């Protein structure tokens, strides 16, 4: 978790920043001030045109080299001293007077042009970026395949191409005292709730932190309850999901440098939805969704149930199954709870190792893990066959949850439940689930209830909850978006 | 932050409860599936001989069944003594059958039924079973390695075919305490070294008083209420040998009416209506043309059942076992004061009972 810096320190930092900008004496020209400011930045480029008495300052790797050549260098090479002032009158050259503005412009990839006392910024920003590719964390089977990349502008363009309305508004909000990362807040005017827009803008502006690198980090900084186990904003990496969010009246936050994009407000159940649900037939979509909720219940409670049943509640199981369980556990020297923890930990080790390793080594880990877990542990009498099956099913089920962040939260919650089951049996599981339900129901996402539409009960929203109703039936926007324009289809 | 603190507090409160658990880890348990009660005479240690069987798992993960017995004063006393004889922790949560010998049950089984009903680990799947002869002999006669399961499945099958009365101990206990009806239980016995379901055991309160054959037991069930699917083999004497009819009925219900003159009970009528098919008839030649006359067969079955019913009621009256719940019907037709006045020991024997049948033959199998 990232700690916010104490306010005092941040104030000092700010003052220091301001001082750097304003302190230089009045005798120095703006050009000299900029040069001073960028002292020690050896990647800075400085070009002089002695006959024109013009200087250019820019970062070579932040500008689009072709455009820089054709739109800035070429004109200055060919222009005469007399023509210079008319050239600089073009709107392409934006006059600025403030040192801070000039520095910010240069850092954004613009070129600063110093003509005697006048300063202009010319935007030829560019530089290297990743190509648009399918998202790896949010793959699609049906539906569009392109995913967001780390460039905010590209991401914006993908969204604008899908939501082609002038009512799509974009607020640009810089975050991070040092990094000055741009966050873009998007909403469709007339559909999104204005109060939510104001609230989110306010929250982003209020962030006082040195740096924000990723949307997941940003979402933790603007969450309602940062200490909760569960993420309160969903992030998506596919433009179609984001467009759907915008049209539903939700607010989108893009962070420069992050391929994940925040949708606010989000409910707990949003984390179980994917684009595929909407592109498939509604019955198949519904079935898949039910499957995911089933997986959620299994992943959180199945191992705990095994522990509780084998430790306390033998009378719950049919006799024939009981014999199987007893036989498989007969050689195991540990209590069921230790046994379960051991295997769950092993699976977590495997998952974590597999996630970090390069693919080729990852395969080795898979094989080693498969043998260790699948056979050796049982043959050595460390664990029982049935537990292996239980743990494997829970692990598979945890990956059925589409959101990786949510899946990780659920897996952690599972450990708590296993502990309670080992201590108190089914009573423990009940206590655990009760705490979980109380906690989940108390969460909010920008003020909207996290468990909606289940609690509070919004019957209209149930058409897009456990089931994905046919499109003809889904006529209203979700209640949690608090949209001023509730209907999204003509009522025939 | 306050929420988090609260959560941590609640979560840690749970740890205060940890001492209150009673772990029962399955592989350490001796899961009793059946308990047999025999009478123990001339013993100072108790008045009942309790035999139980439970699986134990060997080092090689094989399942093996152990049978042990002990003499005790009560069921719980017996469990304790049985536990002392093995390394396993004896538990009764998987118990399916309580088998009582006739001798033992004749003295009353109230005490044991109570003990079972009180136990929070025992559910409703427990059956009260009476055995002809020694109860522990039943266990020895069963060929498989999982004795309890065998008895359970055998009785469940018979009960599903409406050959023997209900199995649920709660029903038994309810009927035992009800002053309008007496309980019944399945009866098993050993024939040629094999365990056989013999019929029904009759009770007066908690005492075993007599038994019925399977055929009689079926009739008893027919007269008691709804029967979903069962069959009857009906033997009618002819000049030479018997005419045998095989009648399967898939629907049967009984209606009981109390006829009164003022407050005087005149007669109790039981009317049983059955719908079914005739699948075998040795009295006709099986060629498609000469069809059996439906009415004739219906009358035959009717007459046979009525005769049998009279005989059954005689048996019940002789044993003073009101397994049909006649007293209950009488009670329900009266006010409580009236009922208190006429309620006496031999009420059941005094009331005339008239049973009528209406049999409807739906078809004669695939013949026509």
From TrEMBL, chain A:
InterPro entries: Spore_Ger, UPF0353/GerABKA_families. The keyword Transmembrane applies. This is Spore gernimation protein GerA. GO terms for biological process: spore germination. It holds the Pfam family GerA. The chain crosses the membrane at residues 290-309, 386-405, 417-441. It comes from Guptibacillus hwajinpoensis. Keywords: Membrane, Transmembrane, Transmembrane helix. One of its GO terms (cellular component) is plasma membrane. It comes from the Bacteria. Belongs to the GerABKA family.
TrEMBL record, chain B:
It is a lipid-anchor. InterPro entries: GerAC_N (IPR057336), Spore_GerAC-like (IPR008844), Spore_GerAC-like_C (IPR046953), Spore_GerAC_C_sf (IPR038501). Coiled coil: none annotated. The keyword Transcription regulation does not apply. Residues 198-365 form the Spore germination GerAC-like C-terminal domain. GO terms for biological process: spore germination. It holds the Pfam family Spore_GerAC_N. Residues 22-189 form the Spore germination protein N-terminal domain. This is Uncharacterized protein. It is found in: Membrane. Belongs to the GerABKC lipoprotein family. It comes from the Bacteria. PROSITE patterns: PROKAR_LIPOPROTEIN. Keywords: Germination, Lipoprotein, Membrane, Palmitate, Signal. Gene3D superfamilies: Nutrient germinant receptor protein C, domain 3. GO terms for cellular component: membrane.
